Every structure is written in C-alpha cells, then in structure tokens.
Give the backbone structure.
Amino acid sequence: MAKRVTLAVAGSRKTQGIVEHCAGLPAARRVLAVTYTQKNQQELQDRLARHAGDHLNIEVLGWFTFLLRHFAKPFLPFMFPGEKVRGFNFEGIPYRMAKGKARFLDKEGAVYRSELGRLAFELITASKGALIRRLEGIYDEILIDEVQDLSAYDWDILDALLSSSIEMWMVGDIRQAVLATNGRSSKNKKYAYADAINWFRTREKKGVVAISESTITWRCHPQIAAFSDRLFEPSWGFPGTVSKNETVTGHDGVFLIRSEHVAAYVSAYSPQSLRHSAASAKSLNLDFMNFKVAKGANFARVLIAPTSPITDFIRSGGGMEPLTASSFYVAVTRAEQSVAIVLDDPGDSELPYWTPSVSTRYRP
C-alpha cells in the first residue's frame, strides 16, 4: 500500500493539507491522525470538526496516547504476564541499571515516558505480529503530522508501520525540528532533530517510502523566505522556498536593529518579540515568547533577540549547528511581513538597519 512523506516549508499549510485530505475521503474510511504536541492535536481536532465533521471514523491522537492505547496497554502481558499499564509517568525516569519490568514501569505500574517508545517497539516483536495485525484491523490509513518531532525508538516503530498494509502519509518540516518525543535517548541519535532527513532519504532509496517536497509558503514575505533558506548550509540539500505572499506594507523583509532603537521599533510596528529562552535577552524589557513555544504560530512581524551562535552567523555568514539553525528558522518563519534582529555590531552582514524617522521616534 502507499507510503509517503511530504516535507514542507514553514507556512505551507501542512496541517490544512491533512484536513482537506480527510474531508475528501469516503466517510467509511477509518483514519488515525497522530501528532506530538497537545497544541497541534487541538488544532487538528478543531479543523477536522469544521471541515470533515461528517466523517465519524477519523480519530486524532497524540503520539504518546497512540503508543499507550495500541501498544503498551493491550500487549504488555506479552512481555510481563499478569501486568497492566496503570498510568503514564511523564517526568520520572527509571534507575540507570534497571532491568525487566522496572526499566519500563514505576512502582505504581505507570509507564515511564522516556521508555515508552522502547517498550512499544519491543512489544511489536514480543507479540509476534499480533500488534501490527490489530492495527491493520482498526485503521485503513494513518496520518502523522509534525513527523520531524519523532525520535529514538519512534523511528523503529515507523519502520514496522511501513511494513504493514496500512496506508501512511507523514507530513513535517525537517527545518523546524526543535522538539523531540525523547530528547534524552541515544537510540537512533543519527536521526535526531534535523538529521531526520537522512531517515527519510534512506527509506526512499530502499523504495519503502516516497518523498515529495512542498516548497510554497503562503505566510512569509519573499525576502523572509529567501533569508530562511540561508540558515542551513547547501549540503543539507533542502529545496528553495517559493513565497506566495504578495502583500506590500512599506516595511517588509529582514532588518537589523540596534538596541537603542528597539523601543521605537516596538512602538511603530508592535512585533511579537522572540528569544531562545527565559535566560536570553534579559536586558530587553519586552513581552517575549520563546522560540519553541512560538512553533506553529504566525505573526505579522517579529523581533528576534539572537543567541551568540545566531549572532555569529549573521555577522560572518558561517554555518550553524543543526539545532541552532532549526531554532532560528522557527523564529524567522513566524513572520508574515518583517523580521527585525537586535544586533549592535553587524560584522560583515549585508542586512539593512532600521532606524527611526523623526515621526516614529519613541517618546517614553
């Protein structure tokens, strides 16, 4: 059966594409839509209710709920006879040398989040195919949104699903890989974050999945789209972004801004301020949102307080580590019309500086 993945740029309406796909399916088709974050789950549920509300066989689950409901709960006795899953331990971790049941379950019988992926994968083998056959009997199609957020044993679970008779469509933006279902695990580390692109390319070469690229952004102004393409080195092989944003406001594109002009800029354009974390940009008294929290949002304008690696990139044009590049990509591509980056020393950057006119000077 068909197995495919769509790798899309920011602002390409990835989630809406899933919704429209579901709305066009026969009402009797049994579909599971899976994603990682609660925010995206709610967005999927809301949109499906509006656009495919008459399709009663479409189910939305979070990735952890999917693994608990269809892997751990029904099949745990295949590994530990007589045991039941009695909860989900989101924060706890087992002792380093824990083995057997203690590796996966706490004293109350709750599954450790950090071990859920491994448990789910081992249950596929322990069940001798029964787990996958059960899924084949429940769903005709599985859709995975924000697939770049998967990690560790999740990739082995995907391999098992790709071998099933269930149709699969995975959608994601590798350049926005800033979250992970299990960032602590060393399993499949070579596919962590943006390196997930290599998992898909390897499977495509094996003929088990077909990759398509969605390169059109409906959100970002052409200058923002072009700038976002520069954040990853050409060796990554990402295609260029095509912007369909034709709006002209008189202040469009990517700009640098000196610290002394931040207040005037905020007064003039009311951008959403973004920073890496609460430990960043403490000298700026702004209503910040962290990069990761902003993922999935869009704003007319953003003002970014850069980290040291981002500052170095802007000044010299050199490369960034993948996770840094992804974080900066998320921040930049939240904007529809303008991006302002706070930087007093431009180095060799050719980005233009915004300076306040007399009429826009900030007056406290």
User: Anything to note?
Assistant: The two ends are 64 Å apart (CA to CA). The longest helix spans residues 38-51. The chain has a mean pLDDT of 94.
